[in-house]
Design goal:
Protein name: Stage V sporulation protein AE
Distance between the termini: 45 Å
Pfam families: SpoVAC_SpoVAEB
Number of strands: 0
Number of helices: 6
Structural class: mainly alpha
Number of domains: 1
Helix content: over 70%
Shape: globular
Organism: Viridibacillus soli
Keywords: Membrane, Transmembrane, Transmembrane helix
Strand content: under 5%
Length: 121
């Protein structure tokens, strides 16, 4: 059990280190970095490499943003097998809709409950 915690920490940490290096060394914006990590997760999922990573690292692979790309690709591929090309579009939304909806709802609740401190320069 301790080994699974260590693997999750190491793999999740490596994904975060890659993102930080893209921003610091590559001088990429956070938006570019997030996009690269999501696309990387989708590509790894498309080649069937992300699921073994999840089996190996557990939460270390399911928590970072690369897992969102995995979910998009996994849903699109699953629905494409059932419904053809239209399944590519509907599959992405079907798999990720609950997470996106939760982010919108909780963001709205947070905006109602807390007050902004204004611009930070």
């Amino acid at each position: 059990m301790i080994a699974s915690f260590i693997m999750a920490f190491v793999v999740g940490g490596l994904i975060c280190v890659i993102g930080q290096l893209l921003m610091d060394v590559g001088k990429l914006t956070p938006a570019h970095t997030l996009s690269i990590l999501v696309v990387t997760g989708a590509i790894l999922s498309g080649f069937g490499l992300y699921e073994p990573l999840i089996d190996f690292a557990g939460a270390g692979a399911t928590i970072p943003i690369t897992s969102f790309g995995n979910s998009l690709a996994h849903g699109a591929l699953a629905e494409a097998e059932k419904h053809g090309w239209i399944g590519v579009l509907t599959g992405m939304f079907e798999v990720t809709s609950s997470g996106i909806s939760a982010a919108i709802v909780f963001g709205f609740i947070g905006a109602l409950l807390f007050r902004s401190k204004g611009n930070i320069d």
